[in-house]
């Protein structure tokens, strides 16, 4: 498992009975998590002294209770700064387990010792964009939600990267990649964090299990002649890491050589010393994994 254990401003304090207790900087949140099926008791004082809790509604959806949080605040990961805030459907605008992927991408970019261009698809609030730019890459950040792209720009500025070579694109990811291929624009690395399910602007239905193969094949065509890495992240329940390995080996390794590793992502739990699984990731690299 790839564990994101380098945080200082984030900590998974405890988890039990469908919820996790987290520290985000100076604030403590309780949020639901479907992976937490164990009932191990709640001895940590944060369970009764949190700043906000997201509660599910029996009729669907939910909302924040006992919310004593500011409109937004910042958290720091190494040399990176991000704005977070309570959002609809339990989110904060940042997935802390992704720090393991940020470290992977940053390390590969620095070790390349050459100019590196990165295409970040379904890029959300820009965690990977900021990490890659800080490592010295030029980045094309693509997301269909204008508000998320604006948020990502603020994260880049908060990290002192406002003047770095980052293209901010509001567009459907597949349509953008198709146009980039027609324009002859190529990238040394691709990062993608596609949703499990969604609808496009014209009502198109996206389902990860049905559409991921075709999308990876498309995105692979946007790679340069000297590709560096290709990273897929997946939160889809039941999609094993080995599925990502099979997909990347079939499309990338057969075409470019190199190697693939896939594993679960996880966050250490302070109260138990165990690790909470948080989805899976697959990493193809042109060079053998170190």
Describe the structure.
The protein is α/β, with parallel strands linked by helices. The protein has six helices and 17 strands. The chain has helices at 99-112, 127-134, 146-158, 173-183, 208-220, 241-256; strands spanning 2-3, 10-16, 19-24, 27-32, 52-56, 62-65, 73-77, 80-84, 117-121, 138-143, 166-170, 189-192, 197-199, 205-207, 229-234, 259-268, 275-285. The strands form four sheets. Strands 1-16-17-15-12-9-10-11 form an eight-stranded mixed β-sheet. Strands 2-3-4-5-6 form a five-stranded mixed β-sheet, with no helix packed on it. β5 (52-56) and β6 form a beta hairpin. α5 (208-220) packs parallel to α6 (241-256). The relative contact order is 0.14. The mean pLDDT is 93.
Helical residues, percent: 25-40%
User: Which word captures the global form?
Assistant: globular
| Helix and strand run | EEEEEEEEHEHEHEHEEEHEHEE
In terms of structural class, how would the helical and strand content be classed?
Answer: alpha/beta
**Number of helices, where a helix is a run of at least 4 consecutive DSSP H or I residues:** 6
Radius of gyration: 19 Å
Largest beta sheet: strand ordering: 1-16-17-15-12-9-10-11
N-to-C terminal Cα separation, in Å?
16 Å
């Amino acid at each position: 498992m790839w564990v994101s254990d380098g945080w200082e401003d984030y900590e998974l304090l405890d988890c039990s009975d469908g919820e996790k207790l987290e520290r985000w900087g100076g604030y403590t949140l309780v949020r639901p998590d479907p992976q937490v099926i164990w009932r191990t008791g709640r001895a940590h004082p944060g369970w009764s002294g949190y700043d906000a809790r997201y509660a599910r509604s029996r009729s669907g959806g939910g909302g924040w209770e006992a919310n004593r949080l500011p409109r937004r605040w910042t958290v720091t990961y190494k040399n990176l700064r991000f704005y977070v805030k309570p959002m609809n459907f339990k989110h904060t605008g940042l997935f802390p387990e992704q720090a393991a992927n940020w470290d992977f991408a940053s390390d590969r970019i620095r070790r390349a010792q050459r100019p590196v261009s990165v295409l970040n698809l379904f890029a959300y609030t820009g965690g990977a964009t900021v990490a890659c730019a800080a490592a010295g890459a030029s980045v094309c950040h693509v997301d269909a939600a204008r508000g998320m792209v604006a948020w990502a720009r603020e994260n880049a500025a908060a990290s002192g990267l406002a003047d770095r070579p980052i293209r901010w694109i509001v567009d459907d990811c597949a349509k953008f990649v198709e146009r980039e291929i027609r324009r002859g624009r190529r990238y040394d690395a691709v990062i993608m964090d596609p949703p499990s399910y969604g609808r496009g602007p014209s009502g198109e239905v996206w389902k990860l299990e049905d559409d991921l193969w075709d999308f990876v094949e498309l995105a692979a065509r946007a790679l340069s002649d000297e590709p560096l890495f290709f990273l897929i992240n997946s939160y889809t329940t039941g999609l094993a890491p080995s599925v990502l390995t099979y997909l990347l080996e079939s499309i990338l390794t057969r075409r470019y050589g190199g190697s693939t590793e896939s594993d679960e992502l996880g966050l250490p739990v302070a109260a138990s010393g165990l690790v909470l699984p948080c989805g899976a990731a697959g990493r193809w690299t042109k060079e053998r994994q170190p």
